[in-house]
Amino acid sequence: MKHLVAAAFAVILLAGCQEKENASAATETSPGGITYARIYIPEADDVAIQIAWPTNWALRGDVNQAVPYIGTDLILAGGAEGFPPGEVVETFADLKAEGHLSVTPDYLFGELVAPKENLVKAVEIAAAHLAKPTMDQGWFDRIQQGFAANMAEAASQPANNGYDALRWAILGDTPLRRALSVDPPEMITTATRAEVMDWYQQTVVRKGAKVVIAGEISEADAGGAVDALLSRLPAGKAVVASAPTADFAPRRILLHVPTAQTSTLVLMGSLPPTREGSEFEDLLLASALGGDDKSVLFDAVRTGLRASYGFGAGLAGYSRDLRVMVLSGEVETAKLAEAETIVRAAYSAFLTAPKMGDLTARKEPFKANGERTATLPGAASSSALMALLDGEDANFALTLPSLLNKVTDATVQARAASAFPKAEALIVLAVSPDAAALPGACVITSPAEAANCR
After folding, report:
1. What's the number of domains the chain is made of?
2. Buried/exposed code over 285-295 (b: 16+ C-beta within 10 A; e: otherwise)
3. Is 98 exposed, middle or buried (CB count within 10 Å of its CB: 0-12, 13-18, 19+)?
4. DSSP string, 332-359
5. Exposed site from 204, 213, 345, 429, fewest CB < 10 Å?
6. Does residue 15 lie within any of the structural domains?
7. What's the order of all strands across the beta sheet hosting 24-29?
8. β-bridge mates for residue 25, sequence order
9. How is 94-107 classified by DSSP, letter by letter?
10. 236 within some domain
11. d(CA 200, CA 71)
12. What are phi and psi of 100, to 5 degrees?
């Protein structure tokens, strides 16, 4: 009898273990023939759907580059069959759902997050706006005017003009530069609803779209949701994007802005695309270099200039192919040249021997974030989508902590030496009220002049 009780207890324990489900990822095909990735997250309250539609609009010289920015807002706000303009925001709020569209030079991104019990209704609303948007003229006018006002405000900031100058220097007068800077600004006010409709019809199609759905949702329900959301879209044509061109040759540029209250210093260089790997090494290096008030650059500027301000480092990109490292900060005008020398020296020394501190401790926030990502449908689906765009498996979103375990002092040091631009290869740009604050620099008075700095 004792053995039977023990055996029964073991069966109960085994059953309990089997009942606890783990997050998983799979590639599936909907009944309508749409391929998607499903991230199953047990006990998640929400379901999230992420979509990336490829686009080459930002690389085309025959179109208005302001149009996609207006279109991303107009598709959802401008109404659809059965949904009056402006209604979707309140309806989504009632459903405790969120829907967003955003655009980059490479993709139009769509996100829909809703509680499980409201997913069907949220998908119905989003599908109507994706398949049959009304694009109300009144809402077009409102969005266009707001966009123009926002860009005018941004253009009044000297630091923003500095980044415009960098785009002129690196990209030249190309469609990509115009798309990123939304310059000339007249393209906002000359954009038409017809152009937005043309962009929409070329972009929001089934062909080439990457789709991820995440949450506590079965394959049958996931496939049904994907079909309901996308099956009414036309198949469309495959987008063929040409490779963007860029010139990262080192230059020293000073944008003279007499009305600037202080000076801004930026050093920039190129990095390999994320699809080539080692992204965690890059993030950790940027963190140690200029991520907080204990970082190498922050300390170097504070100590070397005896200043009350700091200096930071970050990673960005003009497109998925054109990724950059940016070192930047506000600097006292009289100390601008000295600041450049100090930042260059600190950066150069860092590349030779990265001061990472306790690497295990530095990785902990990233690991904790990775663990949270695997439990949150919105974060998991977004991470999985980025992985798909880099040619990785969607399971990437569930393995971030284990990937971080592979990062060592040796891999970090190797990455700094092989992938990060050398100090002498950086482009330097200063925005300053003093035209002589950066000796030897190419002095300009408008961003466009940076294209001629060599």
Report:
1. 2
2. bbbbbbbeeeb
3. middle
4. -GGGHHHHHHHHHHHHHHHHHS---SSH
5. 345
6. no
7. 24-29, 35-40, 210-215, 46-54, 107-115, 98-103
8. 39
9. HTT-EEEEEE-SSE
10. no
11. 7
12. -140, 150
Whole-number pLDDT of residue 309: 80
C-alpha span between 438 and 263 (Å, rounded): 10
Residues 391, 393, 398, 403, Cα dihedral to 10°: -60
* Contact of 27 with 213, CB cutoff 8 Å: no
CA–CA gap between residue 246 and residue 8 (Å, rounded)? 69
Q: How far is it, in rounded angstroms, from Cα 151 to Cα 37?
A: 37
Strand positions, DSSP E, 66-170: 98-103, 107-115
Q: How far apart are CA 74 and CA 295, in angstroms?
A: 42
Q: Which residues contact 403 (CB under 8 A, 6 or more apart)?
A: 280, 370, 396
Residue 13 pLDDT greater than 70, yes or no: no
Residue 10 lies in a domain: no
| Rounded-to-integer distance, Cα 17 and Cα 81, Å | 49
For residues 355 and 141, give the distance between their C-alpha atoms in angstroms, rounded to a whole number.
52
Q: Which domain holds residue 276?
A: 251-452
CATH number, position 196: 3.30.830.10
Q: What is the mean pLDDT of the segment spanning 298-308?
A: 88
332: left (phi over 0), alpha (psi -120 to 50) or beta: beta
pLDDT in tens, 375-415: 999 999 999 999 999 999 999 999 999 999 999 999 999 99
CA distance 452 to 13: 73
Q: What totals of helices (H) and strands (E) does the chain contain, helices first?
A: 17, 12
Query: Cβ contacts of residue 146 below 8 Å, gap of 6+?
Result: none
- What is residue 51's DSSP assignment? E
Which of the listed residues 201, 231, 261 is the one where a domain comes to its end?
A: 231
- As a whole number, the mean pLDDT across the chain is 94
